[in-house]
User: Fold EAL domain-containing protein from Cryobacterium cryoconiti.
Amino acid sequence: DVAMYAAKANGKGQVQTYHQGLLKADAPRLTFEWQLAAAAAAGELVIHYQPIVSLPNINCTGVEALVRWQHPERGLLFPGHFIEIAERTGVIVDIGAFVLRQACADAAAWQHAHAGIPLDVHVNVSARELDHDHFIDTVLDCLAATGFPAANLILELTETVILDAPVAIERVRALAAHGIKIAVDDFGTGYSSLTTLRTLPVDIIKLDMSFVAGALTNTVDRTVISAIVRMSAELGIETVAEGVERLDQQRFLEGIGTNAAQGYLYARPMPAASCARWLEGNLRDADASDDKMRGKS
Ligand code: C2E
Ligand code: MG
Ligand code: MG
Ligand code: MG
Assistant:
């Protein structure tokens, strides 16, 4: 807009000034987009894993894969800085394929390390990825290559992703027919939560953290979240609460029968090596409490 203003004010040389201004203004953005397009191949994408735990016993049942970009100059960037751009430019297709492959490989290794425990891995999927003709093949190839069980792969989709394109609905059904599980992410924040449940084979509902945050202070949030959990139970859908930060939130969620929780109260998203150590600790604690219940300790 500065360039436009300068161009108008300058009169005669306006076209040239405008173009120079445009180039200058867009150079950093274009550089960022090119860097992002090359990031996966350059090995700059990193996956952090955040554990998901069962309620009320706090045993880890799975992890969510959350991508980060180790930018050469800007440091570790969170998805909020680049996912939208990746979706707009289409680079999300490559990023998504990388995340799927790496997450299944890491989770397969953790399953082996712990004698085949049924650890789930959750992977976020954008509309643009589901829209791509090769998406189903990408997912199936990834399972075949890593040996990771389909039943332990959960694709996290938002309501908008699912209902934006008719082809998306067919693809999600096809994936479900292969035994892959479907979670609706940020449930309750879109316009069509209930339609999603009528349209698709949903296995898991992720209760958005805004409801979790509001549950203890706001009557509407408390009523909505309780109703979603009750409805899910009747439909045979599991519930996972996102963004659990405090014990009073956990207590409330347990009270209404939420199946699982994820949040800083248990663990922050962390690199694969740290997650492997965290899993060992959590599984050891789970064994110890099983032994206690069987009277062994
Ligand atoms: P999401 O799938 O809803 O992921 C949950 C977000 O909440 C993550 O943010 C996580 O770090 C954050 N979080 C977890 N526990 C807590 C808590 O107790 N308190 C608070 N305040 N936040 C918590 P993150 O990692 O920045 O990711 C943001 C979003 O980016 C994700 O939201 C997801 O929509 C998207 N995303 C992340 N990785 C990928 C990916 O590989 N592909 C795609 N398409 N999208 C991704
Ligand atoms: Mg998610
Ligand atoms: Mg979410
Ligand atoms: Mg969210």
Remarks:
- The mean pLDDT is 89.
- Strands lie at 45-54, 60-71, 75-77, 120-124, 153-158, 181-187, 204-207, 238-241, 260-261, 270-271.
- The chain is about 55% helix and 20% strand.
- The first strand starts at residue 45 and ends at 54.
